[in-house]
Write a structure and sequence with these properties.
With 632 residues, this protein is of the alpha+beta class. 34% of the residues lie in helices and 19% in strands.
Length: 632
């Protein structure tokens, strides 16, 4: 972190301040328009809030602390100079009020003894522009009783002050190895334990909770394993309120420390404000952020402004086995009266700018098997006298896509909806730092050079990826074997208006044509394993407007409106079966590494996201009430 060019300290007697005052908001607003930004840092002392530091923008301060807009006032006690850089020993005073917020911090007045404090006229002028604001705040706090905090101010303050408790709950949830993709009894037991923990936490908030058993999963080897239950929870049934249903999943991808993790993936580790652990961003952290928002209303005795329902599953990473059937069954039960459905299971496009997602690509996943016989061959005995399955398969896979990423299957682009001028313009406004994106991806060069081209090929155009080959020798060492049967795996990400069945026909026709030209005596079989349609939302729905307002309130910035190149099947399921509006509100940063080693969520995203969700409830209620007033 760069040194602060100026430091200012403002201390106020405890009796003169009320949390959430309008004066504080005025100073924050003025700061946001100035060149003064926030530097992260500070430590917590007994009875005090975290210390906040301000520095001029562009002075080398930590990027993660910029653009903070919302602060609250908190009664705290500073224990001395070690808590506040630039404050001489003995100046800390118990009972003083410190202005605090997220990232943690404090206001400062000019301290000529602070290390790195400049003496030049320009710096003195900058300090002089800030000091009147602080004096204004100080004067306002000494003049009569300030107004009590509003509902949102109190909620934001509560979440700020209880963030360590929220992190602790996330730590407990991460410790559960709720892996769904590996069909082992131990993991199924962990999944059941995870679902029970979530159900208990929701009951603790006063929710009516019902766990739905989905039966058993039949495995290809003949074994049967129990499916984890789905948690259905409800808070409130006021017919005059809007009803928001929150979807999340509590299962995770497999993780082993020996596979590249810097620490135990199931022990939450906080390093430089980053919370590392499997499931932190996908999807335990976002689920808990919603629960944190509800808990803030409950703890403060505030009435929830909307009815809230939770649908939490434990098999999302394994295809949401049994969920679609449950959604159909509960259409006129649990989902009756639901106005909006919200999913928080993807990421922002950047590290700092929030986003709302209004579309995802679909997915057609294929296997292509080439078989000569059921056992392998010795290459010294059979090499050169037969059609080798691996050679056939490599030729088939190599015919699917060229070196520029263009899919070579005839007719595949015919169904792609044409780009409109309005849509093209949207890509220009999206915040994407190509250099940062490339560095965080650890890729030397992308196929495209501009932001617009990259985003369009991630979201708006289909892509084909080759995933692997089953049956081939892939272990260390040398083995002179000719595989007798090999299976290639690839998928095509679909975009509007592509159709799964039409793509399946095109793929099979193409591979059959390529295979026939090889005159091979082997057998080829092509199978569609997964077929999921793309999803697109109506960005003019009330809940998108509510989410935009909530983000602007908490983060102080308009969100990016983005699509997601991956596939989130549940959104299309909800939309098709229930006919409900679906909103995607990602919470994690672009570098969170979902599914990868060292998955993390930033503490800032987790806590500010909890605040944003609380603000979202209030905004939905306001829009719902205004809509009711407009009815004839």
């Amino acid at each position: 972190m760069g040194r602060l060019a100026e430091r200012v300290i403002l201390r106020m007697p405890a009796a003169s301040v009320s949390p959430g005052s309008a004066a504080a908001a005025a100073v924050v607003s003025a700061l946001s328009r100035s060149r003064w930004g926030v530097c992260s840092g500070g430590r917590r002392g007994a009875g005090s809030a975290d210390v906040l530091r301000y520095g001029r923008r562009g002075d080398g301060t930590d990027e993660t602390a910029r653009d903070t807009r919302t602060l609250v006032l908190h009664r705290g006690a500073s224990s001395g100079s070690q808590e506040i850089p630039g404050v001489r020993g003995g100046e800390g005073q118990a009972g003083a009020f410190w202005i605090t917020g997220l990232p943690p911090g404090n206001y400062f007045k000019k301290d000529p003894d602070a290390r790195g404090s400049p003496r030049g006229p320009a710096h003195r002028r900058q300090a002089s522009t800030l000091l009147p604001l602080l004096l204004l705040l100080q004067g306002a706090m000494f003049s009569g009783s300030p107004p009590p905090p509003g509902p949102l101010d109190a909620l934001l303050q509560y979440i700020d002050l209880h963030q360590d408790e929220f992190v602790q709950v996330l730590r407990e949830w991460v410790a559960v190895e709720s892996v769904s993709g590996q069909p082992a009894p131990r993991f199924r037991q962990e999944l059941a334990r995870m679902m029970a923990m979530a159900a208990d936490r929701l009951r603790g908030l006063g929710a009516s909770v019902h766990t739905v058993e989905l039966g058993s999963q039949q495995l290809p080897d003949g074994r049967s394993l129990p499916l984890p239950p789905v948690v259905l929870a409800e808070l409130g049934n006021d017919p005059d309120k809007a009803t928001v249903c929150l979807y999340g999943h509590l299962d995770v991808q497999p993780a082993l420390r020996s596979r590249g993790w810097r620490s135990d993936p199931y022990t939450l580790a906080e390093v430089d404000g980053k919370l590392y652990g499997r499931g932190t961003t996908d999807n335990k952290g976002p689920v808990l952020a919603w629960i944190n928002a509800v808990s803030a209303f409950r703890a403060l005795g505030q009435d929830l402004p909307v009815n809230v329902k939770f649908l939490l599953e434990g098999m999302e990473e394994a295809g949401s086995v049994g969920l679609e059937e449950l959604v159909r069954k509960e259409k006129d039960g649990f989902f009756s009266g639901v106005d909006y459905i919200v999913v928080s299971d993807n990421l922002w496009l950047s590290r700092r700018r929030p986003a709302l997602t209004y579309g995802t690509r679909g997915n057609s996943y294929f296997t292509v098997e080439v078989k000569c016989r059921g056992q392998d061959f010795h290459s010294g005995t059979f090499g050169g006298i037969l059609h080798e399955p691996m050679a056939d398969l490599v030729a088939l896979l190599g015919s699917l896509v060229d070196s520029s990423g263009r899919i070579l299957i005839p007719g595949i682009y015919d169904q792609v909806a044409p780009m409109t001028q309005e849509e093209t313009e949207k890509y220009k406004t999206i915040d994407l730092d190509l250099e940062e994106y490339q560095n965080s991806s650890q890729v030397e060069k992308f196929l495209f050079d501009t932001k617009e081209e990259i985003l369009m090929h991630l979201w708006r155009y289909p892509s084909l990826s080759i995933h692997g080959i089953e049956g081939a020798f892939d272990e260390p060492g040398a083995k002179t074997v000719i595989p007798g049967c090999v299976t290639g795996k690839f998928s095509i990400r679909l975009v509007p208006d592509m159709n799964v069945s039409a793509v399946e026909k095109q793929v099979k026709q193409h591979l059959e044509a390529v295979f026939s030209k090889r005159n091979s005596s082997n057998q080829m079989a092509v199978s569609l394993v997964i077929g999921l349609q793309p999803w697109i939302a109506n960005m003019n729905d009330n809940q998108y407007l509510a989410a935009k307002r909530a983000i602007k309130t908490v983060f102080g910035i308009e969100p990016d409106m983005i699509q997601d190149g991956s596939t989130i099947p549940i959104a299309r399921t909800f939309q098709d079966i229930l006919g409900k509006s679906v909103l995607m509100v990602p919470l994690g940063a672009v570098d969170d590494g979902e599914h990868a080693q060292n998955e993390k969520i930033n503490r800032w995203n987790y806590i500010e996201g909890s605040k944003m969700f609380a603000a979202f409830f209030l905004e939905v209620a306001r829009l719902h009430a205004s809509q009711d007033r407009d009815l004839p």
